[in-house]
Records
---
Amino acid sequence: MVQNYKFSRYRENLRELFYIKKIVRYRKLSRYWEFYIISLSKPQ
């Protein structure tokens, strides 16, 4: 029972970690796109 509980907690932590990684990657990407769009909209 205790083992099972530990395992489920472990899986939850993994999921959270994965989710956080996804968010971080998405934010980096959006920042990159922002920069790209700004550089495009600037007159040469």
Note: The mean pLDDT is 88.
---
Amino acid sequence: YFILIDDVWDASISEIVKHLFPDNNCHSRILITTRIQSVARSCCSYPKGLVYKMTGNFIHTIKSDPD
């Protein structure tokens, strides 16, 4: 599965998501977006985390990509 949860404001969502969608080694992915750095860090499954800061240009690039 691929799950996208957009604009999260509360760090507790990460525990709920982990409970509902356990890691079953099926190469599933969960993408969570937030504007709050502490929420982003709490949602990471790796110690150092994979937190990316997106800009408005990123969204424009996706919309204008011909592929």
Note: The mean pLDDT is 78.
